[in-house]
Records
---
Amino acid sequence: METNFSRIKETITDMSRFNSEGPGISRFSYSRDDLKARKYLLDICESIGLKVRVDAVGNIFARYEGLQPELEPVVSGSHIDSVKSGGMFDGIVGSVGALECARVMKENNFVPKRPYEVVFYAEEEGSNFQVPVMGSKILTGKLGIEDLKKMKTLDGETAYDTIKKAGFNPDKIPEDVIEKGKIKASLELHIEQSVRLDLEHHTIGIIEGIAGCQWYRVTFKGKQNHAGATPMHLRQDPMCAASECISKIKDMAKETTKTAVATVGFIEAKPNIPNAIPAEVSFTVDIRDISNKSMDDIAIRLKKEAEKAAKNNGCEVTCECGATSNAIEIKDYMKNIMKDEAEKLGLDYIFMPSGAVHDSNYMAEITDVGMIFVPSIDGRSHVPEEKTSFEDIKAGADLLLNTILKLTEE
Ligand code: HGY
Ligand code: MN
Ligand code: MN
């Protein structure tokens, strides 16, 4: 059995149409575009006879029944939401690839020993509530109803209300949590989102470890005042404090480990007008590494630098952690299955870490996970220019299919 190139290409291209504002793809979970994309996928699931379950916050599980339905299923999928002005492949390659595996089984009248479930995760990017991998955190019991009542959109709507308004039922969260041991294995096909596979001309990355992440919100509070009339020595300028702190963040990462990264991607001044010293400046810091300890070390340095910058500029500062995801290691047996299947398919593969975070980070709390990467052309992602060849996507989907077939027979 093998996956169908034109069907993969058609489905990924169709998914990119559920997007009302360019440039690139901006399809946040619970938006109109998201609900349309969900309907499109659910129609396909129905057409191939998958039994669909949508959980309390919109994670979709589409089940292809096995010969022994009582056995724990193998699951595979990814997210269907995007960042703002992102690309058409992030998340979608793994979602469509997993769906394609069910389509191939169906058209070959193949029935695996174990059930196989296609999963589409909700709110992986954190675009609505600034909490990444929310859907998988919820389904693994790491976030609950009370958290959703505290998490908010930038307009101040709670996650609980946003999710309810979209037609889901967050009150059902406790009964939808999946316990450890209820899933045999979880697999995710994904674009690399960096340069290595493309630069070194490899088709496949078999993932050895997935970076964790820690998201902080640093807020400096100073004294709003007239931009022209206030002499420099009388200022308590939070923008000066913020810039002093931000200028140190690059070195905090570089000096910690070779794989640590830190990014300030969002900054906001209030009242954000040219002729007033701001009252307040706040920004996000996204810290990643394949070791939890080094992320903690960077966070400690960040807090120290923030306090120093606040003192230098007569400001107050808070440094709040908004979200964390643990770094995880992939088990040897999972890597070896993928290695054997890649070699049988004659695929050019390497072992590599993932710098990006994925729903697999949280699925690893309840089952064994495996990830397969395909190249990102020019290593770009979270941009409209994000691109992966459909030939590589098919190769990744074939490896995913063969890994699923192997695991469902265990
Ligand atoms: O941010 C990430 O690592 C992922 O794309 N959500
Ligand atoms: Mn992403
Ligand atoms: Mn992704």
Note: DSSP finds 13 helices and 16 strands in the chain.
---
Amino acid sequence: MTNAFAKVTAIRGMNDALPGPGARWEQLESLVRTWLRTYGYRNMRTPILEHTRLFTRGIGEVTDIVEKEMYSFTDSLNAESLTMRPEFTAGIVRACIEHNLLYDRPQRVYSMGPVFRHERPQRGRYRQFHQIDVEALGLAGPDIDAEMIVMVARLWKRLGITDVRLELNSLGQATERAAHRAALISHLEQHVGILDEEARRRMYTNPLRVLDTKNPAMQAMANAAPRLFDYLGEESRSHFDAVCARLDDAGIAYTLNPRMVRGLDYYNLTVFEWITDKLGAQATVCGGGRYDGLFELLGGKPAPAIGFALGMERLIDLWEQYAPAPADPECDVYIVNQGEEAQRRAAVIAESLRDQGVSVIVHAGGGSFKSQFKRADASAASIAVILAGDELAGGTASVKMLRAADSAVQANQQLQVPLENLVAFLKDRI
Ligand code: ATP
Ligand code: MG
């Protein structure tokens, strides 16, 4: 029998961001919004739940995500299969098609939020995690591919992150992949003895994905496999070269990784990953690529597109290694009060301060001055206001500087301020 009083815990692989560390998330989110704005990207939000077939079609049946990582369930009301989004792109493209967003111009959009994958939880790998997802829709040229990469480089700079490197590849076009595929399958057939079960299962349905293996025993085989890059035609090569030229212009270093295929099936031409040595095994912080076929695959008019996603947990883990935690005071002003009269006055004064944009906590729950001051200090407020007794009756409040606010005022100094001047006085010192 289950114990009615037993603790209910969070689901494995799904994390809480508590107050304190939560400030880091807010700081990142606001910085990211500003960064994206400077490139003309606008926010869009799609539902967390979508029809399962959006992802099976959009991501590809023979991928890690669709084969084993999706949180899918049958909606008992109408027996439909639904899935918690494992990534943003498919939903964003669906919404663009549904609302005909590309009818008169390209769109630069981003989303930020939770995605869900049923993986084995470990550092940097969770079952609910968060992505910053950025998409340029309706644009075909290598200029936009390069700009997206340059954008990410700017984010590293803004965050003060230095140890990240860029790997690039081109997946060419479908015809080039088809030519490479035959050679790749025959290579896999020659090494069938060392292929793991997953690789054997995929070698005819999606042989390119076999190269994406993390199995150490298969690395040498994968390295020796025929390179898709060598099968690229003139156009794909010149697209790739044009991206590289623009990265050179921007002074961004990169290496060609001919084995990079990325986790999703819909990519073509440019694919890229930003990788770091500072996160242990889960080393990729950002991955992206071009997916010119996806609109058509999802029933829309063909439209070129490219995008990337940053894993926010990995990004924060990395960022913390460069930047100290942000200060996260509970408020600017903490109002200590004693007695009902003082409590009521405190509430009114607090509202006036909030009118001025000052953040205020009115002590709640009573207690001695000593315990209230303890709480004020723990709040990390810069100023405590004391409302009580004769002083209050005489129309003044005590103001105590908990932290040095300006050079004219000493920390821990206590001042008497007439109530009618209090709001102006405090506002000047925050
Ligand atoms: P990996 O090879 O690590 O499984 P992926 O190719 O599945 O990554 P993408 O689908 O490209 O990852 O997702 C974009 C980014 O999201 C990744 O680069 C990574 O930073 C982050 N990410 C992916 N899966 C997880 C996860 N389970 N937990 C936390 N972050 C993740
Ligand atoms: Mg994965």
Note: The chain has two domains: 19-172+232-322, 333-427.
---
Amino acid sequence: MKVTRFSVSMEKEILDKLDQISEFMKFPNRSRTLRYLINQFYSKTHDKDEEVAGAIILVYNHHKRELQNQSTRLQHNRHHLILSVQHVHIDHDNCLETIAVKGKANDLEELAHNLIALKGIQQGELILTGSL
Ligand code: NI
């Protein structure tokens, strides 16, 4: 991909924040940081028909009644969107599930929101790539 250089003007306070992000993320330069931030923005703003991949991350207590049955049912209903599921038993009570997904952004968001809304889910997040 062709790289274009450009100059940027910003207040010192904003630039300091940019450098703090670079340091925190261990990026070697501001270009990498800006690229990362721009990708972050676009990974949250997709057209609904855009083909993307990503992951749904769920944390829950497996003792909650019916939660796993409901989650499995939702996932089977949308099996064409799911690439893989990794289930980790974090401790005696809690589970971490990472569901790799691929499909239209709108369908992935709907699946993620349905899963995250299940009673007993403690944490849930959808992470999407840029368009494919
Ligand atoms: Ni478990």
Note: The chain has a mean pLDDT of 92.
